[in-house]
């Protein structure tokens, strides 16, 4: 049965290239907003973002 869905197709397989991209992203922007998961290069930007977007 070739047309049966592959059970492994649900799994997210990360290629080495994707891993590298993710690593670079985290390296480049290590400050992540815990409210919306946006990333920032500097802590100052994160603080400004929080004050602007998540202030209440
Ligand atoms: Zn945020």
Explain the overall architecture.
The chain is mostly helical and 56 residues long. The chain has a domain at 31-56. It has two helices and two strands; from the N terminus they run αββα. A two-stranded antiparallel ribbon has the order 1-2. Strand 1 (31-32) and strand 2 form a beta hairpin. The protein is elongated, with a radius of gyration of 18 Å. The termini are far apart. The site of zinc ion has 7 residues, from helix 2.
State the secondary-structure class. Answer: mainly alpha
Major sheet: order of its strands?
1-2
- Tell me the total number of β-strands: 2
Shape: elongated
Beta-strand percentage? 5-15%
Helix content: 40-55%
List each distinct ligand once. Answer: zinc ion
**Secondary-structure element order, as H and E?**
HEEH
Rg result = 18 Å
* Average of the residue pLDDT scores: 88
| Main sheet summary | 2 strands, antiparallel
Poorly predicted segments: none
Quickly count the helices. Answer: 2
Distance between the first and last residues' Cα: 57 Å
